[in-house]
Amino acid sequence: MGFFAKLAAHATNKMAHPAIISERLSLTYGELFDCVKKTALNLDAAGFGPSEVVGICIEDEVDHVIISLALLATGASIITLPGTMPRNCEPVWPTGFR
What we know:
The protein is of the alpha+beta class.
């Protein structure tokens, strides 16, 4: 059973149970799964998948969890970048990265 199928099964069994609780918002496992599924579909439509390496730099913990799980669902590899990167910093990526 793959990652996304395990997440779906867990969300089905624990639909109303809290999955994420933060100062900004709380999500149940059902809500988390819906967010991850929608984000994964959008990422897949944009061409992200198993051959992609994606760098993410997101300061918000909830958004970081959702994007990370969605990228895992697409099969993409994730590199977490430091959240302290200067705002005016433009990353330079090797060929094939985006």
